[in-house]
Amino acid sequence: MAERSAHVRLLPFSGPEGKRAHLITDGSPTPLSLLADNIESQQIETATVIVELARPMVTEEAKLTADELRWIARRLIESLTDVLNIAESRGRRIPDYEE
Q1: Using 50, 70 and 90 to split pLDDT, how confident is the model at 1?
Q2: Which long-range contacts link 58-61 to residues 24+ away (Cβ below 8 Å)?
Q3: E strands of the chain, at which residues?
Q4: pTM attached to this predicted model
Q5: Cross-strand partners of 22
Q6: Above 70 in pLDDT, residue 3?
Q7: Which of 92, 79, 93, 94 is nearest to 44 (CA)?
Q8: 20 to 30 A Cα–Cα from 51, which one of 33, 62, 70, 72?
């Protein structure tokens, strides 16, 4: 029987006290890994929407208050953080090149 190696996946949500959560699997789909896939897809969709909302807010013609600019900046930071976590998690799962 072929032995499967362990895969460590950074999950797209935090554990208690904001600590990063990881899932260790054999690489096969599990309910938790499928949930993580779904959450990652939603986070990417949300980031796309936030970027589209932000574009007109930062043009020369836009007359936004400081509170409105802070709001969109917070949303952009939240979305960028989510997408960077997704990139890190997926990057860890890409096998190294064979020499």
Answers
A1: very low
A2: none
A3: 7-14, 20-25
A4: 0.80
A5: 10
A6: no
A7: 79
A8: 33
